[in-house]
Amino acid sequence: MSSISCEYCCYYTYDEEMEEYVCDVNMDEDDYGRLVEQGFRECPYFKDGDEYKVVRHQM
Fold it and tell me: What are residue 56's phi and psi, to 5 degrees?
């Protein structure tokens, strides 16, 4: 399994206040705790941010 980079995720956004990129997934403390404890190799919240992926596939 190849790991997917956060840079391609639609939730990876620039926070002007912190002046850095952050994961903007809406999760609560329990979700975050499970994410840290289970040590996922790939993020379960990853969503491809490539809006044109479907269009390229149809060509």
Answer: -60, -35
Distance CA(41)–CA(2), nearest Å, equals 9
Considering the entire predicted model, what is its pTM?
A: 0.61
The two three-digit tokens of residue 32, written as one number: 């975050």
Q: Is the pLDDT of residue 10 over 60?
A: yes
Tokens of 51: 């809006």
Other C-beta atoms lying within 10 Å of the C-beta of residue 46: 19
For residue 31, CA distances in Å to 4, 19, 27, 35 come to 20, 25, 6, 6
- Amino acid letter, 18: M
